[in-house]
Amino acid sequence: VNSVNLHGVQYRIAKRGLELLAVGGRMVYSTCSFNPIEDEAVLARILQETGDSVRLVEIKDKLPGLKYSPGLTTWQCASKQCDLYSKFEDVPEQIAKVQIRPTMFPPPPEIAENLGLEKCARLLPHHQNTGGFFVALLEKVALCPWESERKAKKREADGTENADDDDDEEIPDPEPPKKKFKGQNRGFREDPIIYFDENEEVFPEIQKYFGLSLPASIFLTRCRDETKKKNLYFTNPAVKEVVENNRERMRLINTGVKAFTRADNKGSNCDYRIAQEGCLSTVPFIKNRVLRPGKEDMLKILQSSEIQKPPEIRHFTEDFRHACDAMETGSVAYVYKEADTGMSIEIVGWKGKDTLRAYVVKNERLHYLRLMGADTSMWEVNKFEEKKEKDKERKEARENRDSSQGGENGDVENSNGDVDDTNGDIKVPGDEDHS
Prior knowledge:
Blueprint: H1 3-20, E1 26-31, H2 40-50, E2 54-57, E3 69-70, E4 77-78, E5 84-85, H3 93-98, H4 109-115, E6 121-123, H5 125-128, E7 133-140, H6 145-158, E8 194-195, H7 203-210, E9 219-221, E10 231-234, H8 237-245, E11 257-262, E12 272-274, H9 279-282, E13 290-291, H10 295-302, H11 318-325, E14 330-337, E15 344-351, E16 356-358, H12 362-371, H13 383-415
Parallel strand pairs: 13-14
Antiparallel strand pairs: 1-7, 2-7, 3-6, 4-5, 6-7, 8-9, 9-10, 10-11, 11-12, 14-15, 15-16
Helix pairs in contact: 1-2
């Protein structure tokens, strides 16, 4: 739904990127969205506006072994009300004014055929067990039409008509004024990237406890106080080389996979636990702290919320109980593999004295439960319906309170002598019998 807002932003970013690109250069357009309004629709708009000056490049031969789906040539657009439309003429007038625009729809088949949108790549998570991305490679073969127009106007203003001028010479747009942000003059310092050396004091404990087969030299921390080392990350040697050789030339915002984080839990012989964020990359290198539950046991772990009391080990199957009893208290990885399909689910958690806990957020729990074909109704709550129900309960409570207060006021009137419901006689204040 948010893609209708992002279409224009993505288009302007791509257009500006092409303006800054030299003729003969290539630009990668990539998003982490699968909505064609942010992906193919943006490229179709750009390619139609640039004509023959920009083309899509086939990437199949450049990345052998990469699994992906080709770009789309047809799609529907959804409004914020979740209504689908196949063509702009079907969009209601009010929505057409503020939400869905003509450029968001696929071009006619005769035009789409020449754009080559199928050369785009859609990397779906199940293709090679990665995140999801949309990627397209653009090549600028000549000045964009609007750049050529600016160049012609510049020549006309200068009074020059030199036919020998390089037609591909870029005339960039003047840069817009830079925005000033609060605190800009003070600057912002990123936390340093500090790689471990071979004598790092905290690493032997981690390596021994988890049976870790990775070397200390590829681990790093991002804490100014080197004595704390709250979170530990790792990269491959190639990334480390890039980081180490470009500290002064590049401003590095982030790098590495979060592997371990310092644990506050008591009872463990190690001060660190496995981080869920990077478990898919970390767990294959861990030998000692891995539990392998069956389907019934894995479902029990996933269906127990963190805020509730974690399930007790005695409630699991016998084989899994024995595996848990043989492992001391501390951080663990749960690895479940489905026999029929080979599907693997890897999560992290904590093995207590008598309980097991999973450190997995709600959305990931839902995802894994769906993969396993489990009932997810207890997790799927429509927040809008929930709000309506709460509003209804508050309204009823307010009405009951008002009704109750009204009844109490009536009793007060009776006690004041205005109406005596006991015997039906009407009493007038001040008309008491003094005889």
